[in-house]
Amino acid sequence: MQQVELFPVPNPCVGVCQSNAKGYCMGCLRSRVERQKWNDLMPAEKMRVLDLCALRKKKIAAIMQAQKDKQGTNT
Questions:
Q1: Residue 25 forms beta bridges with which residues?
Q2: Rounded CA gap, 1 and 32, in Å?
Q3: How large a percentage of the chain has pLDDT more than 90?
């Protein structure tokens, strides 16, 4: 049996609706399918999407830090 959520899961959209090279929104980091299906998802599915977005954000931050570190060693 599915647990009933007491509070709705907020939409992570920040109004920056452009896709990056991998097809993820540059604002919220959801995939196109995740954005299109958001309103049809159950709360647990929405939470999973938010978890995936957080992982994507960490990955992007790590890549950017590695690039920054590499530029620092080339100077």
A1: 19
A2: 29
A3: 76
Would you list the DSSP string of 45-61?
Answer: HHHHHHHHHHHHHHHHH
pTM of the model: 0.81
CB–CB of 15/8 below 8 Å? no
Contact 2, 47 (CB under 8 A): no
Centre a 10 Å sphere on the Cβ of residue 24 and count the other Cβ atoms it contains: 19
User: Chain centroid to CA 42: how far?
Assistant: 17
Q: Residue 6 is which amino acid?
A: L
**What integer is the mean pLDDT of 15-25?**
93
Tell the residue number behind the tokens 């977005």, with chain if given.
53
For residue 47, give the nearest of 10, 1, 4 by alpha carbon. Answer: 10
